[in-house]
Amino acid sequence: MAESEVVGKYLHELFPEEHAAVYQARIDSAIKEDCFLEFEDQIDLLTGTKWFLSVYSCVNDAAGRVIGIQITSIDITERKRAEEDIQASELRYRQIFMNNEAVKLLIDPDTGAIVEANPAAADYYGYPLDVLNTLNIADINTLSGTELHNEMQRAKAEERLFFEFQHKLASGE
C-alpha cells in the first residue's frame, strides 16, 4: 500500500473488523504498558498467509503526551517457516533416536559428558535414563583416561563415528 492509502486512516478502514478490534486493543495496551509492545501475527493477505513481527510504540508531543502510535511490521514468514522446519526435524530426530532399539549415547567429545541417551541405553546399562544422562563416558567405559581421551579426539575429528568397547553396567558387570 502507498503511504497515502494508510496515513490518516482508521483501523476499521484498513482491516476487517475482527482484526481492527485486536489491533485497537494492542494500541490501548501499548499506551498503558510504557508505550512499547511487540507481537507476532499470522495474517491472511490477498497474496497468501504471511507472518509479521509488529512493534507498537508511542509518538509523543513536546509535553510528553501520546499523540499517536507507530506500528512497524516486518515480514518474518521465511523465519517462521525455517522454525517450523527445525521443529519438524527435531521431532524426527527424537523419534528416531528415542524409539531406536539400539543403544544410543551422544557424548561431548571435549568433556566426555553423556549429552543424551536413549531408553534402550538405560535398559542396557541398568541406570534410569535421567541418571544415565548425568554420567560421563568414563563412568561406564573401561578404557584408561588417556585412551578414552584419544578416542574422543578421534571422534571429534570424525575419524571415528561409533564405538565398540567394554562398558561397565550399573550392576558392576
Chain-wise SSE layout:
Elements (H helix, E strand, L loop, with lengths): L2 H4 L4 H4 L2 H16 L3 E10 L2 E13 L5 E10 L1 H22 L6 E3 L6 E4 L1 H7 L3 H4 L4 H4 L4 H12 L17
Antiparallel strand pairs: 1-2, 2-3, 4-5
Beta-strand content: 15-25%
Rounded radius of gyration (Å): 28 Å
Structural class: alpha+beta
* Helical coverage, percent range: 40-55%
- Mean pLDDT value: 87
Helix count, DSSP H or I runs of 4 or more residues? 8
Largest sheet: 3 strands, antiparallel
Residue runs with pLDDT of under 50 for 5 or more positions: none
Q: Outline, from the CA principal axes?
A: elongated
Query: What is the helix/strand order?
Result: HHHEEEHEEHHHH
Q: Strands across the major sheet, in which order? A: 1-2-3
Task: Compute the separation of the termini in Å.
Answer: 73 Å
Characterization of this structure:
With 173 residues, the protein is an alpha+beta fold. It contains eight helices and five strands; from the N terminus they run H-H-H-E-E-E-H-E-E-H-H-H-H. The protein has helices at 3-6, 11-14, 17-32, 77-98, 119-125, 129-132, 137-140, 145-156; strands spanning 36-45, 48-60, 66-75, 105-107, 114-117. The strands form two sheets. It has a three-stranded antiparallel beta sheet with strand order 1-2-3, sandwiched between helices. Strands 4-5 form a two-stranded antiparallel ribbon. A hairpin with a 5-residue loop joins strand 2 (48-60) and strand 3 (66-75). The mean pLDDT is 87.
